[in-house]
Specification:
Elements (H helix, E strand, L loop, with lengths): L1 H9 L6 H26 L15 H24 L5 E2 L2 E2 L7 H16 L14 H22 L1
Antiparallel strand pairs: 1-2
Helix pairs in contact: 2-3, 3-4, 4-5
């Protein structure tokens, strides 16, 4: 959260409430996935590493993951639809909403990695997953292309 706010201050651009919320929900989403992985990995011995871990159940974390995944997608979508916050090179660009499908795919792919590949404990490994990496690169490419289109 602090990095996003610091980045907005450093650039200097207007801090979007939707971007802050999106960052918050994404952090919670990934944190709940990590906590779920830890809970399932440690099983009955989960109290030995974190005292709070026995307070969670896998089904409770699954619900929290689902809610924060939806909130991440919605807040990112609202961020892109809020034109005053989608400036590229000093000009408004309503076309940033074209990046929403990549974000949806990224969240769904991450859910797949968590639930089917048991990779929720290490979010940094998502860069080793080829489909996730392609989605991130395509997202970045669209953002760059939109920046060039707006500037031109």
């Amino acid at each position: 959260m602090l990095r996003v706010v610091a980045g907005c201050v450093a650039l200097p651009v207007t801090i979007s409430e939707w971007l802050v919320l999106c960052t918050l929900f994404l952090a919670l989403f990934m944190g709940f996935c990590k906590r779920r992985h830890e809970l399932l990995l440690l099983g009955e011995n989960n109290a030995t590493t974190r005292k709070v871990l026995p307070q969670y159940t896998a089904s409770l974390l699954d619900q929290m993951i689902a809610v924060t995944a939806a909130l991440t997608i919605m807040s990112y979508s609202l961020y892109t639809f809020t034109a005053k916050h989608t400036h590229f090179l000093g000009r408004e660009s309503p076309w940033v909403m074209l990046t929403i499908p990549f974000v949806i795919y990224g969240v769904f792919r991450y859910l797949y990695l968590v639930y089917r590949k048991d990779q929720g404990g290490t979010p940094e490994d998502l860069f080793s997953d080829r489909p996730m990496l392609v989605a991130i690169l395509l997202w970045g490419l669209v953002v760059v292309l939109l920046s060039i289109k707006v500037a031109g």
